Amino acid sequence: RNKNNIYEQSFIQKKPIEHRETSTNIKNIIGQLFNTYIIVEGEKKFYLIDQHAAHERILYETYTNQYKQTPASQNLIEPYQLELNTQDMLLINEYIDEINRMGFDVSIFGENTVLIRAVPYFFNRVVEPSVLQVVLDEFKEKEYKGLSPKERFISSMACHTAIKAGELLSVEEIKELVNQLGNLDSPFTCPHGRPTIISMTQYELEKKFKRVQ
Amino acid sequence: RNKNNIYEQSFIQKKPIEHRETSTNIKNIIGQLFNTYIIVEGEKKFYLIDQHAAHERILYETYTNQYKQTPASQNLIEPYQLELNTQDMLLINEYIDEINRMGFDVSIFGENTVLIRAVPYFFNRVVEPSVLQVVLDEFKEKEYKGLSPKERFISSMACHTAIKAGELLSVEEIKELVNQLGNLDSPFTCPHGRPTIISMTQYELEKKFKRVQ
């Protein structure tokens, strides 16, 4: 199913999202700007994609679909031992299945310790096992109030395992990100509601350069 | 003399042009968009350059400086014979020195004929000898009224020998264009007054993506 045609929609113009299943409008990946935004050329329009927000949205949907498909995972050479306080251990106990379905292999090792044998793996990048502690910490923050526990885990995991702003990406990584984003149902905002894509038409650019009146 | 620091100036913001002679702010050439605009990354800012307008400005200054420096020229394998009407022959007669200093080698061959032995040459591109007829035609247009005859020739030549919008450029050609533009005294508009460079700061982009408030 090809949904790259989402790039036909401009986030700025706040058009409703429609999917036309037949064609892609991405013609060219131009490059990466400030190691943070990906510039994509479309048909009479160009796009700037926030690599972090876009990846966050991709991961959010991947994690949400965890029951349907297993995300990529990589075994650690040495298991990573993480000591947790009682509150975090309770969380782990309750959500261990969800966490493991996100690509971790976490097992309870003692009263206050978990053993991490595998971590999520995306774009040739291995998620640091210590990210689990960050995710547990964020779970308790008020930022996510109103979300279900599962949603909180997913949002926090998506944020902390996504490509960061300021990371230099290879051409292959850029292509993968752009393609994955094109396959989403809700590609235009990250889970926090920030835009992932902004666009400008060739016509708008022509006006700026006074090529047209 | 390094003036690449012009890219520190934003055309859109209409700041006065200042030259700081010590450093360049171009960090990266990102690529070419719609085969028409060059995307350049600077320090906390990015630039879109209209390749035609920019080249027009470069050539305009080159032709204006014709008495100081000879522009690149290439001999034709076969001399090109151009038949002209009486009015055009009078123009040629009057401005043959100026035309030849722009990179042509034009000589009068008969009552209504000139022989073109060499043409201007830029960016590995040879100017078509027939451009001389276009330039002569435009000389008589009212578009340029208010300009001196020399100015009219120069403006028309710059317009008709510049890289066009829609031309795919090589990385080397892009670099040369960007560097040459950076060395000009008036890089921000083409001879017709259209902008050559527009810019956006990283901060403005961050606002669009709601990375900052």
Helix content of chain A: 25-40%
DSSP summary: helix tally of chain A: 6
Give the DSSP E fraction of chain A (strand runs of 2 or more residues).
15-25%
- Main CATH class of the largest domain in chain A: Alpha Beta
Please state the structural category of chain A.
Answer: alpha+beta
- The CATH homologous superfamily of the largest domain in chain A is termed MutL, C-terminal domain, dimerisation subdomain
Main sheet of chain A? 4 strands, antiparallel
Task: Report Rg of chain A.
Answer: 19 Å
Catalogue the unreliable spans of chain A.
8-24
What string, H for helix and E for strand, traces the elements of chain A in order? EEEHEHEEEHHHEH
C-alpha geometry of chain A:
elongated
Main-sheet strand order of chain A equals 1-2-3-8
Q: Measure the end-to-end span of chain A.
A: 40 Å
CATH topology of the largest domain in chain A: formyl-coa transferase, domain 3
What would you say the CATH architecture of the largest domain in chain A is? 2-Layer Sandwich
Summarize model confidence as the mean pLDDT of chain A: 83
Descriptive key words:
Ribosomal Protein S8, Chain: A, domain 1, 4-stranded antiparallel beta sheet, alpha+beta, homodimer, 8 strands, 213 residues
